[in-house]
From TrEMBL:
Family indicated by similarity: Belongs to the group II decarboxylase family.
Residues spanning the membrane: none
Single biological process term from Gene Ontology: carboxylic acid metabolic process
Gene Ontology MF terms in the entry: aromatic-L-amino-acid decarboxylase activity; pyridoxal phosphate binding
Coiled-coil boundaries: none
Classification lineage: Bacteria, Bacillati, Actinomycetota, Actinomycetes, Propionibacteriales
Superkingdom classification of source: Bacteria
Protein name, per record: Glutamate/tyrosine decarboxylase-like PLP-dependent enzyme
Pfam families listed in its UniProt record: Pyridoxal_deC (PF00282)
Length: 459
């Protein structure tokens, strides 16, 4: 008889120890690369090892090299945590081990993702009939949305890119804000368009694309406009309503990179930030950011299912694709064999409901403002308007001091945030994205940042 209980019990106990310790755990790794290699390495095993022993050794070996991004005092990148329901559903997803490619390969997965897709479209206030693909993250969501855009703008120009490729195709111009996220550039490389197709559009002081500059740059022929919902540094939103109006007047496709900012649509108090976003043609976002589900969980949404299906669909004699209108996921994303990643998203939405998701978004916004206020009250310069969950802090109007504070805070372990360069100036970048973050976390973290700044100035 197979022993499932031993290794799974060991994993459960180790996981509970980790999760229960997060509130007080040092926020940062505690081991060097060399120490981790010594703990985990060794020669290739020549024979079997008891599975429970393997899990215990793995957990012990990685313990000091983990970055506790699920902590309420983790403010790096734009990482969320994992809610209990989504984490538990993710465990079940792994245990069930379903291939989420087609209805035939997992009817339950197909139905769960179909239901979840409808919920997501409603949560974001997008047009009825919008299709949804479950991908790994915002990178692949941008890639997939832009693949649909590439198909459609070339189709309008009389070119079948899926059949004929790009050699000899009409050139595509991609108009995007100068402060875009680099996943857009990377997606364009993946799609064979290259970065020379990019027409950078001027932005304002917060990184928002200027609609007037876009209007001047738009021309004729195949064009894609990439708008941004939530600048990765400032949190600022491009003016979606104006962008969609002027872009569509020039027959351009509008894609929105809304990796975290799209979730503002769920909050009644923050919906104004995404006004007009429903008029776009495709959208990319992450569920592992503000929905706080485990990695990996990106989402691509498309108001026009046919271009998305045309760019993504796969047929083969051995595949059993459904003929009765049931969901075959491989028509909406670039993967065939994949885990049933829509199940944790379903569980998160079911557990939180619209009001619970809005509460997370609102609280993170409130906590970001609280962090900014604590720093400003002690003569720290905040470079951005805190419209969402991002705070850019600068110390002594000095690049070197700012970078030293960031490095020292990371080493201190009270909290963790990363550095950035914003419009030529070094800054500490604080992202409040975790569902557990509360006032105590903010006050404790701000106090640590100010203490470290003072120590560095005195040294």
């Amino acid at each position: 008889m197979v022993d499932w209980e031993g290794p799974l019990t060991e994993a459960f106990e180790r996981a509970m120890t980790y999760l229960n310790g997060l509130p007080e755990r040092r926020v940062g790794p505690r081991a060097t690369s060399a120490e981790l290699r010594q703990a985990l390495g060794g020669p290739l095993p020549t024979g079997p090892t008891d599975p429970r022993e393997v899990i215990a050794g793995l957990a012990k070996g990685v313990e000091d090299g983990l970055l506790p991004s699920g902590s309420g005092r983790f403010f790096g990148f734009v990482f969320g945590g994992a809610t209990p329901a989504s984490l538990a559903a993710d465990w079940l997803t792994t245990a069930w081990d379903q291939n989420g490619a087609m209805y035939a390969s997992s009817p339950a997965t197909a139905v769960v993702e179909d239901i979840t897709a409808d919920w997501l479209v409603e949560l974001f206030g997008l047009p009825s009939g919008t299709s949804v693909g479950f991908v790994t993250g915002a990178q692949m969501a941008n890639f997939t949305g832009l693949a649909a855009a590439r198909h459609e703008v070339l189709r309008r120009a009389g070119w079948d890119v899926e059949r004929d490729g790009l050699i000899g195709a009409p050139p595509i111009r991609v108009l995007v804000g100068a402060e875009r996220h680099n996943t857009v550039d990377r997606a364009l490389r993946f799609l064979g368009l290259g970065t020379n197709c990019i027409v950078p559009i001027a932005v304002d002081g917060q990184g928002r694309m200027r609609a007037d500059a876009l209007a001047e740059a738009l021309g004729e022929g195949p064009q894609i406009v990439c708008a941004q919902a939530g600048n990765v540094n400032t949190g600022a939103f491009d003016p979606a309503a104006e962008i969609c109006e002027v872009a569509h007047a020039h027959n351009a496709w509008v894609h929105v990179d809304g990796a975290f900012g799209l979730w503002a649509a769920v909050s009644p108090s923050l919906q104004h930030l995404v006004q007009g976003i429903e008029n776009a043609d495709s959208w990319a976002t992450d569920a592992h950011k503000w929905l706080n589900v485990p990695y990996d969980s990106g989402l691509v949404l498309c108001a026009h299912p046919e271009p998305l299906r045309a760019s993504m669909s796969l047929t083969a004699a051995y595949l059993i694709q459904d003929q009765n209108g049931e969901r075959d996921s491989l028509d909406y994303n670039p993967e065939s064999s994949r885990r049933a990643r829509g199940i944790p998203v379903y569980a998160a939405i079911r557990a939180l409901g619209r009001s619970g998701i809005a509460e997370i978004v609102d609280r993170c916004h409130e906590m970001a403002n609280r962090f900014a206020q604590r720093l400003e009250a002690d003569n720290v310069q905040v470079l951005n308007d805190v419209v969402l969950n991002q705070v850019l802090a600068r110390f002594g109007d000095d690049d070197e001091l700012t970078r030293r504070v960031v490095t020292a805070v990371q080493s201190d372990g009270t909290c963790w945030m990363s550095g950035t360069t914003w419009q030529g100036k070094a800054a500490m970048r604080i992202s409040v994205s975790n569902w557990t973050t509360g006032p105590t976390d903010i006050d404790r973290s701000a106090a640590a940042v100010l203490r470290i700044r003072d120590e560095l100035i005195r040294s």
